[in-house]
């Protein structure tokens, strides 16, 4: 993680030597939506498959200079992971994928740097607020949902991540983006039953949006 932070800082510093210009010097607001591929990783987590879900929300862009902008966002993000590979005892009695669904309201605060007009890279912290948690043994059909009450959950309500990615904005306001967020904090509560479990959220996001 330290190497990742050092590399990110060095990369952003190098951008100051690149001649680039934002396509707008005015405050902009827009909407976006896309697909998520999420999982969890850590020293105490075995191999798990990714969950495929979606994200949707609002984005703003506040120009700082010709080259840099501040980009806050707020969006719904379907996350979690696929349980099928670790359901060795066939607890759920199904041949379908079994998903552990963790859904968040995510608030990234990104520094955006333009490489050329329209093309940018972005990096910054992201703060997640859990809004829903369930196990779905039939993710492709109705039924099979086991909702987990907050009083019975071992998953923390708050999560922090580091987000970095790239986007391209066309002259008509449409933009496409690709982003990866790596978890910085454990998502599982430290308690007497589970102990201190190392498990962090990771998400690939690909999306389409429009700046008004």
TrEMBL record:
Keywords, in A-Z order: Signal
InterPro entries named in the record: Beta-barrel_OMP_2 (IPR025665), OMP/PagP_B-barrel (IPR011250)
Keyword hit for Signal: yes
Stated name of the protein: Outer membrane protein beta-barrel domain-containing protein
Organism lineage string: Bacteria, Pseudomonadati, Bacteroidota, Flavobacteriia, Flavobacteriales
Domain Outer membrane protein beta-barrel, chain residue ranges per copy: 20-188
First and last residue of the signal peptide: 1-22
């Amino acid at each position: 993680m330290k190497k990742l932070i050092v590399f990110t800082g060095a990369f952003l510093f190098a951008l100051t030597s690149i001649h680039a210009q934002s396509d707008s010097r005015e405050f902009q607001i827009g909407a976006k939506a896309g697909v998520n591929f999420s999982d969890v990783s850590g020293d105490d987590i075995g191999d798990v498959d990714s969950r495929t879900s979606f994200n949707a929300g609002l984005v703003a862009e506040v120009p700082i200079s010709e080259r840099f902008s501040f980009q806050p966002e707020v969006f719904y993000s379907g996350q979690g992971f696929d349980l099928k590979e670790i359901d060795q005892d066939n607890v759920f009695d199904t041949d379908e994928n079994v998903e552990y669904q963790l859904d968040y309201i995510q608030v990234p605060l990104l520094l955006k740097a333009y490489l050329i007009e329209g093309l940018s890279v972005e990096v910054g912290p992201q703060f997640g607020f859990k809004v829903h948690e369930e196990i779905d043994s039939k993710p492709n059909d109705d039924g099979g949902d086991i909702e987990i009450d907050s009083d019975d959950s071992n998953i923390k309500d708050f999560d922090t991540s580091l987000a970095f990615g790239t986007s391209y904005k066309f002259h008509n306001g449409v933009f496409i983006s690709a982003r990866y967020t790596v978890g910085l904090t454990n998502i599982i509560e430290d308690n007497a039953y589970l102990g201190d479990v190392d498990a962090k959220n990771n998400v690939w996001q690909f999306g389409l949006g429009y700046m008004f």
